[in-house]
Amino acid sequence: MSSPEARQISFIKRPEGPVGADSFEIISTAVPEPATGQVVIRNRYLSLDPYMRSALNNADNLGRPIEGRVVGQVMASRHPDFRDGDWVFAMGRWEQVSLVDGAAARHVNTNIAPASAYLSVLGFTGLTAWSGLRHYGALREGETLFVSAASGAVGSVAGQIGKIKGLRVAGCAGTDAKVAWLLDELGFDAAFNHRTTPDLTAAVARACPDGIDIDFENVGGMVFDAVFRNMRYGGRIVVCGAISQYEREPRPCVPNISDFINKRLNMRGFSVRDHAAEIKDYIEEASGWLRDGKLKYRETIVTGIENAPAAFARLFSGENFGKLVIDVA
Amino acid sequence: MSSPEARQISFIKRPEGPVGADSFEIISTAVPEPATGQVVIRNRYLSLDPYMRSALNNADNLGRPIEGRVVGQVMASRHPDFRDGDWVFAMGRWEQVSLVDGAAARHVNTNIAPASAYLSVLGFTGLTAWSGLRHYGALREGETLFVSAASGAVGSVAGQIGKIKGLRVAGCAGTDAKVAWLLDELGFDAAFNHRTTPDLTAAVARACPDGIDIDFENVGGMVFDAVFRNMRYGGRIVVCGAISQYEREPRPCVPNISDFINKRLNMRGFSVRDHAAEIKDYIEEASGWLRDGKLKYRETIVTGIENAPAAFARLFSGENFGKLVIDVA
Fold first, then answer.
1. pLDDT in tens, B194-229
2. What pLDDT shows up at residue B246?
3. CA B244 to CA B229: how far, in whole Å?
4. Of the N and C termini of chain A, which has fewer Cβ atoms inside 10 Å?
5. Which residue from A262, A263, A269 is facing B264, i.e. has the nearest CB?
């Protein structure tokens, strides 16, 4: 009798320019057995995120699936905290079954929110927005927060946290439907489509008539350039991502160094990896906001692990709308 | 009998491009009488500093002398803290006699150092280096500090503070003589001439083989670009000045926004104006370093207020070496 098998998406070729399906292949591997302290998870959902793009520039990652966060049910456990059937969150890979250290896995409560939410609004994308603003944003009521890629999984949480904290919130997104969602559903005070706006600097100025106190930056490139020109005295630039730069050479973004002095600007890059230990605090606070209707979210769930490569490419073309999650079951 | 007169350098024309003598004219005005609370100072020394360049872009400043810090002796006082002959420091103007509020003047102790030192190593240029590193540099022993315009009035103090605090210190300057002074007199670990180095990025890398933990930035432009590429994980960029950008349009400096994330960089602009209240603490600490021979300084004292415009222009051409002070007496 052959052992049970599970499918994986192996990374086989570094992309030159935009990532395409030819960088991946589907393979089948034997379902692993856990060693002491390990847990085998039958993944239900796999998170696909822009940050993964950098892993595709690293030849060391060739020949196996890229790492990715997963939510699923324990199918075999040799760790005392986990039993078969438990819903868990872990760093797995682009695969149907993941073998992980129990110490690095975490139970999720599917009574609070659907399991997929632990990869979106209650997951690391939500934590990214929350921890970035908390540690580096110094939000003050009445100030103006600007969020680029504001309809994205991270940006949409950042903007809503700004509203919850009493700030004026403006942002940009890449389609009119996304802009409408920001204004009509999420309560942004202003928003515009950065792909169809001829003068980005003027568009940011219209959206933020008093200037920007906090920029939560997800895009980089020319969008950032326009934002930078609208920063206020004492402004904080929290650099979370630079999606416009991931698939090409970085463009000159012309931050006038003298502006840093004249406006006392602070610019800080961060990664949610430095704040992973805060996930429980975040889930506790965000669960309350969800319950009270203060925090809304949108997911795009793509069924079938074989569709992960094409779905991943849509993160960079701007076609994706809402947190991208693969239903691998 | 005509009232006594004193000379001033009036700002009469905004410069287009590099500043020249035609932006100024020498005039004579009556020596003022102090009102209640005021003090009249017979200036001995006037500080000329790069930051003044921005005042020349402002038409509101036309028709009178530019503001500048002075050290001199009280010649008339209607403030209880000051008597005739007292040596004081104040914000005056490009003039032989200044009328100031006594509350904004401060005694200086010419037993500790010559009066001119209160415009250089014990003045606001020293305070700039000290407060910038203290508040925004987070210096740690064994780290690497890079200082651009390192032989300048601010940079030379910044570099020496780095050495006093146990850091490796590297820097660049614009002449071989300045580089030699950094290495032979100030104890820099590495230094190079940025005007004669063909590959700035490689030169910074040679000077800082482990990368840069703290950049004390005074130059901007292509020097900053090279420094930025050599920043280490967790690096702090303290933006003090951008002298390369004061007389022309800012150049694109291409800071790759992704580097802010990957290296968790922090970049902060500051002004010594926010730290003026710390001057007493600075003078106390720096006086000790001077006494112990740990802090060296160099002044270029130009005699005659009529020579201020030409001397000021030399700040931007790179010809000046050491803190530029005008002896106006």
1. 999 999 999 999 999 999 999 999 998 889 999 999
2. 75
3. 18
4. N
5. A269
Class of domain A125-273: alpha beta
Which residues fall within 8 angstroms of residue B182, CB to CB, at 6 or more apart?
A: B150, B151, B156, B159, B171, B173, B188, B191
In terms of phi and psi (left: phi > 0; alpha: psi -120 to 50; beta: otherwise), the region of A221 is: left
Q: Which residue of A has its CA nearest to B246?
A: A258
Which residues have C-beta within 8 Å of that of residue A253, sequence separation ≥ 6? A220, A221, A222, A224, A225, A228, B252, B254, B255, B257
Instruction: Determine contact: B57 vs chain A, CB below 8 A.
Output: no
Q: Are B212 and B144 in contact (CB under 8 A)?
A: yes
Instruction: Break chain B into its structural domains and give their ranges.
Output: 5-120+298-327, 125-273
N-term to C-term CA, chain A = 23
The pLDDT > 90 percentage for chain B reads 89
Chain A nearest CA to B204, separation (Å): 19
> Is B265 part of the contact surface with chain A (CB cutoff 8 Å)?
yes
Which residue, chain included where needed, has tokens 């004292």? B301
| φ and ψ of B235, to 5 deg | -70, 150
Residue of A nearest to B223 (CA): A257
CATH number belonging to the domain at B5-120+298-327, selected among 1.10.10.60, 3.30.413.10, 3.90.180.10, 3.40.30.10: 3.90.180.10
Residue of B nearest to A245 (CA): B258
Contact A260 B239 (CB under 8 A): yes
Distance from CA of B329 to the nearest CA of A (A): 33
* Cβ contacts of A266 on chain B, cutoff 8 Å: 266-269
pTM for the whole thing? Answer: 0.92
ipTM of the complex: 0.90
Q: Which residue of A has its CA nearest to B242?
A: A258
- The string of pLDDT tens digits covering residues A165-205 is 999 999 999 999 999 999 999 999 999 999 999 999 999 99
